[in-house]
Design a protein that fits this description.
2 copies of one chain form a homodimer. The first copy, chain A, is of the alpha/beta class and 307 residues long. Helices cover 51% and strands 11% of the residues of chain A. Chain A has a 5-stranded parallel beta sheet with strand order 3-2-1-4-5, sandwiched between helices. Chains A and B meet through α6, α7, α8, α9 and α10 of A and α6, α7, α8, α9 and α10 of B.
Chain lengths: 307, 307
């Protein structure tokens, strides 16, 4: 059974998802608040109630692909027009979305998702059916989730060309705070400190500064929205960073050495370069331990290539 | 008059400098503690007193290209065997080297230098006559320096294919702390925080984390030596960083916003991308204001392409 797909929000992510699912032969349609152009033959509408009633009639998988800041009214509409549909999302943070979904009484058939792809551009026109090819697509695997919906969401990710990384909502939010949101904050701070050095410092800037500040060139409103949505986990990552950086400063000031800071960073970076990914092409989605097995797979760096 | 060049220390930087000067037609010879191989026809020795007596006889420009940690015995040998020679260096920090040079009574004919080039590799075998092509080569421009030696050092940099950026020793050390040493410390800290996230976090790491941790893969002993040699200025840069990062944490915690952090970083990074470099092909090295004019040139992002 291939469940139809109903995409709400046709920006870079939602627009790419509609294209990828359609091109893979899935019945798929989408809604966007403002009309998208050119629609290029994709099945799009700017009537949210009608789009959702169609999803309810077809028993579609509904994908919420609006920004975090636009989440509440869209979930309210889902609760009104398609409360029984399988539901997922494509927002970059998972625990806050799960909480909002529960507030709207939609938790029973919800399995969160996060396709980890993007470009410097945004909007429907920037989308592409190939955006998710070889990207990681996190699918939430918290206890209590509906395993049938889990399979539907994972299959959608695979159909779009991504590989599936299962994780609990909390694990996901902690991980992306450290490897995606914190790098943006550090890039901003490094750029600002370098800028304090004036034209002389900037004119001497070489690879280390350029690499370390590259993502500070991203549109500020996107960075801000992404980081602020993951506030709780990002605050934990910032505490860890402040502790380590204070230790580095103290060690350099009091003992004239940065040995342990540099060694710890080197070891961690080598782990990234040498990371061994377990590729799984089938998972057992039955039994009471299924979700715990999925979480363990993700925790060990594993990914699902086929179901 | 083209003064001969005597290079002390034939690692990546010194070895490349000897090759570049020789290939450009300069009389040039070098010393290394251990014999280099293959010498490829370059004029090299592992006898330091003999190398320096030859420099004294030929009135050569002596270039100290040993690591900071090996500086003292080399300067002692210069003071013993070639105390009257014009003297420069290629160490990545300037004020501490100038202080050591003064301790050895060699300040009168010393003008510090810092060719800002490098690769991931080190040692004579990794060197190349083209290493400095289009690189910045900072030449110290503190008041009281000998302008004739200044010209010699700047001409050596130009002969090697670099462009000259004049700066006081303090200005140089502050600038490289912000744009070269701080990025290494932040990369190490970011890598360590990401590593705390385990295989899940590393398996989700995308461009922002890879870019931000890239230089953490550098050999730790090189990073440590480079950062620790610039301790005083790096401590200032770390204080600035800690203040900005603490403000970011407080703002996110208390007001749920990272707006000012992200905006300041974005503005500074755009300045880097839009930096306008003034290219100068002649400078006036006469008169009491010559060194101040040079410093002003560097402070405004200018560089010297020809003398």
């Amino acid at each position: 059974m291939t469940r139809p797909v109903c995409v709400l929000g046709l920006g870079l992510i939602g627009g790419s998802l509609l294209r990828a699912a359609t091109d893979a032969g899935r019945p798929a349609w989408g809604y966007n608040r403002s009309p998208v152009a050119p629609a290029d033959g994709y099945d799009v509408s700017s009537d949210l109630p009608a789009t959702l009633r169609r999803a309810a009639d077809a028993d579609a998988l509904v994908v919420v692909a609006v920004p975090m800041t636009a989440l509440q009214p869209v979930l309210a509409a889902v609760a009104e027009h398609a409360p029984g549909c399988a539901l997922t999302d494509a927002v970059s943070v998972k625990a806050p979305v799960a909480a909002a979904v529960a507030q709207h009484g939609l938790a029973a058939r919800y399995v969160g998702g996060h396709p980890m792809a993007g470009t410097a551009h945004s909007g429907w026109a920037a989308g592409s059916a190939t955006l998710f090819r070889d990207a990681a697509w996190v699918v939430a695997a918290d206890d209590g989730l509906d395993l049938d919906v889990w399979r539907d969401v994972a299959q959608l990710a695979l159909v779009c060309g991504a590989h599936v990384v299962p994780a609990s909502a909390e694990e996901h939010d902690r991980a992306v705070a450290a490897i995606s949101h914190l790098p943006h904050v550090l890039a901003a701070v490094l750029a600002a400190v370098g800028g304090e050095g004036g034209e002389l410092a900037l004119s001497l800037a070489a690879g280390s500064f350029r690499d370390g500040t590259r993502v500070a060139a991203t549109r500020p409103e996107l960075v801000q929205a992404m980081c602020e949505a993951n506030r709780s986990s990002l605050l934990d990552a910032l505490e860890d960073t402040l502790t380590r950086l204070t230790n580095a400063r103290d060690s350099l000031r009091d003992n004239a050495t940065l040995g342990s800071t540099v060694a710890a960073g080197h070891t961690a970076r080598l782990r990234l370069d040498e990371l061994h990914r377990t590729e799984v092409t089938d998972v057992d989605l039955t039994g009471p331990q299924a979700l715990e097995r999925l979480r363990a797979l993700g925790r060990n760096g594993g990914m699902i290539r086929r179901l």
